[in-house]
């Protein structure tokens, strides 16, 4: 087959392959966008479902308040109940279209309301406390009817956004905790209302509920710890720890203990509710905060999927245009001239000898240049191998020339080479920069007492401690002997002092083993200097930090001194005499 015919065939095959790939890519992004959109809708439905469960549960307290009215003329409890019912009705209306389980829950709620209204018309009757509790407790049945719908929406959210599984689980656990906490209060109400001992059945229910609440609390903590919590979630979690899981549990235990022993309660139903109900509110706050965090993440994901889909569609159109244009360009600028050149070369080969032309190895237009291409390719491979070998050698030599052989830190030359660049950048962009000069205290005594091998071991240990405390981008080097120098970028004087103190404390906690089995500790003196407009050269900055370090030595060692604090004019040895005294031991 001639190359021109082969080129046309390849063009069609390539066009089909590219079209299929772009179609597949666009289809994948479209599916991801649809999945994200459905996930956001499921998460919003989950919010509404949990909100409906909350509104139904919140009808319990005002219902009990109405049943506990002393006189029917007192309308405040009735007004509170009316508002609670209105909120529940709005929550029912938010779930449109209404699923069958929500319709059945609505019927249960209406039946409970009719029963509560009928009992409220008869006034307060103490002996009816158990019946009142059972009737109002049927609101729990309505909540349980909605639970499968909520679980379904939660599963859909997890499928669309696997990263939000912990958030969704935490929100549902918080909602379950609020529901279980409300039911627990319902079981305690009759005994508190009548100031009597808890029955065996009531006690069993209360203890079981407390166990379930504790189990859900543990699971909630695990889910909240599985990801980074936002400020709102942290704040509500702290309120819960102090409130419902703190003082409320203590009050609850006192009530249960009194109910078990039959001793008088220290509180009545109203006082207990004033403590118990407000402390349950953060459970719903935690649920809402976690869901809000999850919804923000889901919406961001949806926006990213939508943007990706738009980019793919634009890229598809551009790729199609580029493919067609490229085919036309290659045909016009490459294939046609190449075919003509091949004919010319063949004519020259048939008619006249051409010593410089490579031999033809294939019966097509490209065959005439294959030999030269192969020769160039072999030459290029050999050249690249030599360049790679040379680059590796250069890199090894560079590493050896810039590293201290004992500690593995930068040596003095490499430190100043890198530090000068950092200083130029700091002056140009007004970046806070500081230098630390660190010297091991009494290092000569270590060498004299334990030998230079142990002294080297101490140097390595201190170097490792310094390196372990450094931030990304900081420069740490061994300056010679027992002295180290650190350059801290993006670090003001206060921060540099804090880092220096942390280094001092870290080194002070080291234990250096000796060949005899004993161990000793080491301390360091640190001088700190911050970069200002007058310190143009790195030498000047290090010199100021060095002066501060010797002042730390002079003040008793194992401390941090700032160069800005060097204003002590008290009599004594000058810095040069002090350094000579230190060297002399």
TrEMBL record:
Domain GGDEF as annotated: residue spans: 431-565
Keyword terms of this UniProt record: Coiled coil, Membrane, Nucleotidyltransferase, Transferase, Transmembrane, Transmembrane helix
Membrane spanning stretches: 309-330
Listed InterPro entries: Diguanylate_Cyclase (IPR050469), GGDEF_dom (IPR000160), Nucleotide_cyclase (IPR029787), Rev_trsase/Diguanyl_cyclase (IPR043128)
SUPFAM superfamilies: Nucleotide cyclase
Residue ranges that the Swiss-Prot or TrEMBL entry lists as coiled coil: 376-403
Superkingdom of origin: Bacteria
GO molecular function, one term: diguanylate cyclase activity
Protein EC: 2.7.7.65
Pfam families: GGDEF
Keyword Oxidoreductase on entry: no
Catalytic reaction annotation: 2 GTP = 3',3'-c-di-GMP + 2 diphosphate
PANTHER family in alphabetical order: DIGUANYLATE CYCLASE DGCM-RELATED, REGULATORY COMPONENTS OF SENSORY TRANSDUCTION SYSTEM
Protein name: diguanylate cyclase
């Amino acid at each position: 087959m001639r190359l021109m015919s082969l080129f046309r065939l390849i063009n069609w095959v390539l066009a089909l392959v590219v079209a299929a790939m772009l179609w597949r890519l666009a289809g994948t992004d479209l599916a991801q966008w649809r999945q994200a959109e459905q996930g956001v809708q499921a998460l919003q439905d989950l919010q509404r479902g949990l909100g409906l469960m909350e509104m139904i549960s919140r009808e319990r307290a005002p219902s009990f308040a109405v049943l506990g009215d002393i006189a029917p003329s007192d309308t405040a409890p009735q007004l509170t109940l009316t508002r609670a019912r209105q909120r529940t009705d709005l929550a029912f209306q938010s779930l449109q279209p209404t699923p069958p389980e929500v319709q059945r829950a609505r019927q249960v709620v209406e039946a409970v309301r009719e029963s509560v209204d009928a009992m409220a018309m008869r006034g307060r009757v103490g002996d009816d406390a158990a019946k009142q509790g059972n009737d109002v407790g049927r609101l729990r049945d309505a909540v349980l009817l909605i639970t499968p719908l909520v679980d379904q929406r939660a599963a859909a959210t997890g499928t669309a956004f696997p990263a939000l599984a912990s958030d969704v689980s935490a929100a549902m656990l918080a909602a379950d905790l609020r529901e279980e906490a409300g039911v627990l209060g319902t079981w305690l109400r009759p005994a508190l209302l009548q100031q009597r001992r808890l029955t065996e059945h009531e006690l069993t229910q209360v203890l079981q509920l407390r166990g379930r609440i504790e189990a859900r609390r543990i699971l909630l903590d695990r889910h909240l710890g599985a990801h980074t919590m936002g400020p709102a979630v942290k704040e509500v979690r702290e309120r819960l720890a102090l409130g419902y899981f703190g003082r409320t549990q203590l009050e609850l235990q006192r009530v249960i203990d009194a109910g078990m022993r039959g001793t008088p309660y220290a509180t009545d139903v109203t006082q207990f509710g004033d403590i118990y109900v407000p402390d349950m509110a953060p459970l719903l706050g935690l649920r809402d905060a976690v869901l809000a965090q999850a919804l923000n993440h889901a919406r961001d994901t949806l926006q990213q999927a939508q943007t990706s889909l738009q980019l793919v569609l634009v890229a598809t159109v551009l790729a199609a245009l580029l493919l067609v244009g490229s085919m036309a360009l290659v045909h016009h600028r490459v294939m046609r001239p190449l075919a003509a050149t091949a004919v010319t070369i063949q004519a020259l080969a048939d008619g006249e000898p051409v010593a410089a032309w490579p031999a033809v190895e294939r019966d097509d237009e490209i065959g005439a240049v294959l030999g030269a291409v192969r020769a160039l390719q072999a030459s290029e491979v050999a050249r690249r191998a030599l360049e790679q070998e040379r680059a590796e050698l250069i890199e090894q030599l560079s590493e050896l020339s810039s590293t201290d052989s004992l500690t593995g830190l930068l040596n003095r030359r490499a430190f100043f080479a890198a530090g000068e660049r950092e200083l130029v950048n700091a002056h140009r962009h007004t970046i806070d920069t500081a230098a630390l000069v660190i010297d091991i205290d009494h290092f000569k005594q270590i060498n004299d007492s334990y030998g230079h091998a142990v002294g080297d071991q101490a140097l390595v240990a201190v170097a490792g401690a310094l390196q372990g405390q450094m931030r990304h981008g900081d420069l740490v080097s061994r300056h010679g002997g027992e002295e180290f120098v650190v350059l801290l970028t993006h670090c003001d004087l206060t921060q540099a002092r804090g880092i220096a103190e942390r280094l001092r404390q870290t080194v002070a906690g080291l234990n250096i083993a000796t060949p005899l089995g004993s161990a000793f500790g080491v301390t360091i003196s640190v001088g700190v200097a911050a970069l200002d407009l007058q310190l143009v050269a790195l030498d000047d900055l290090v010199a100021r930090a060095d002066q501060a370090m010797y002042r730390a030595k002079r003040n008793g060692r194992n401390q941090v001194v700032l160069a800005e604090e060097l204003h002590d004019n008290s009599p004594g040895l000058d810095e040069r005499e002090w350094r000579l005294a230190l060297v002399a031991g």
